[in-house]
Amino acid sequence: MSAPRTSSAPVLPPAPPRAAAPPVHPVPPGERRPAPRRRSRRSRLGPYLLLLPALVPVAVGLGYPLARQFVLSFQEYGLAQQFGRPAEWVGLRNYTTLLSDPYVWGVIGRSVLFCLVNAALTMAVGIAVAVLMTRVGRGARITLQVGLLLAWGTPVLATMTVWQWLFDSQYGVVNWLLAEPLGLTGMRQHSWIIEPASFYLVATVIVVWMSVPFVVFTVYAGLLQVPEECMEAAQLDGANAWQRLRHLSLPMVKPVLLVVALLQVIWDLRVFTQIYVLQRAGAPTRETHLLGTYIYSLAKEFSMAGAMATIMLVITFVLTVFYIRRMLKEEV
C-alpha cells in the first residue's frame, strides 16, 4: 500500500483577533447630538487677510482715479479750477451736451465697429496660428515663436515708425508692391492715411499685427492641455482634423477663448497710441477720432473728458457683459 499523500501548502497562523469597535452610546430622547465645531473666525478671514496687501494698492491705484473722474464729470472743471477757482456742480449737463452732439455718436459708432472688427480678426488669426503651431515641426514652431515674441516685444512707437515707412506714399514698400509687381499704377503715390477708409485699414493691420501674439501664445498653451487620448479616440471614430478641432479642441479651451476675447474687446475699444501716431503723421483728425483720441482732445476741459471717459466705461461694460455672463456660467 502506498503512503497517503500529504499537502505541501504551508499552514497559516491564525489571524489575530480584530479590535472591538468602540461602543456607540445612544442619544437619550429629548437631547441633540453635539454639532461639529465651526471654523474659527480667524481661519475664515485668513485668505482675505493674505489678499489685503495686494488689494489695497490696486484699490488705491484704480479706485481713486475712477471715483475722481466720476465726480469731475458732474462739475464744471477746467484750467481755471487748476489755479484754485472752486468747481461748480452742474449735474448731468456734461452728459447731455455730449450725448446731444451727433459727432459724438459718430465717434462712438466708429469706435465700436473698429473694436469688433479688430477683435474678430485678431481672434481668427490668433487661433489659426496657434493651431498651426501644434501641427508643424519643432524648427518651424520655434521660428514662429521667436517671430511672434519679437513682434510683441517691440515698443509701440518703434513699431509705428516701421509701419509708417511701409505705407509711405513716396518710398513705401506697400505702394511699390502694388504698383510694380501687381500692376496697380494708381497706387504708386497713394496716401493711405489721408482717406478715412484707408486710414482705418492701416490702423486695423497694425492693431491686429500687434495683438495676435498674445492670442497665439494663450490659445496654444490651452491647446497643449487637450488630452491626446481624446484626440486619438476621435480619430479612430472617423473624425477628420477639422471635426476634431471644432467639436473637441475648441470646446475644451472655451474658457481660455472667452477670457482672451474679453481682453481683446477691452483693449481694442480703448486703443490710443496707434491712432494718435497716425493722426500726427498727417491724417485728418476730426474724421479719424476714436474714443481714446477724442477723450484726449478734450484734455483742456477736464469735466467733459471725465464724462466722455465714463460713457466709454459704460460702453465697455455693455460690450463685455455677454462674455462676463458666459464666464460666470462656466464657473458655476
Describe what this molecule looks like in 3D.
The protein is mostly helical and 332 residues long. It has a single domain, classed as MetI-like fold. It is 68% helix and 1% strand. It contains 15 helices and two strands. A two-stranded antiparallel ribbon has the order 1-2. Helix 1 runs antiparallel to helix 15 and helix 5 packs across helix 8. The chain is flat. The termini are far apart. 22% of the residues are buried.
Quick synopsis:
The protein is mostly helical and 332 residues long.
Key structural traits:
single chain, 332 residues, mainly alpha, MetI-like fold, disordered N terminus
Secondary structure elements and their pairing?
Blueprint: H1 41-72, E1 75-76, H2 79-82, E2 88-89, H3 93-99, H4 102-135, H5 138-153, H6 156-166, H7 173-179, H8 196-223, H9 228-236, H10 241-252, H11 254-269, H12 273-280, H13 285-288, H14 291-297, H15 302-331
Antiparallel strand pairs: 1-2
Low-confidence stretches: 1-10
Instruction: Tally the helices.
Output: 15
Protein structure class:
mainly alpha
Please give the CATH architecture: Orthogonal Bundle
Side-by-side strand order of the widest sheet = 1-2
Looking at CATH, the homologous superfamily is MetI-like
Bin the strand percentage: under 5%
Number of strands: 2
What Rg, in angstroms, do the CA atoms define? 32 Å
CATH T-level fold name: MetI-like fold
Approximate shape: flat
What is the name of the CATH class?
Mainly Alpha
Distance between the termini: 81 Å
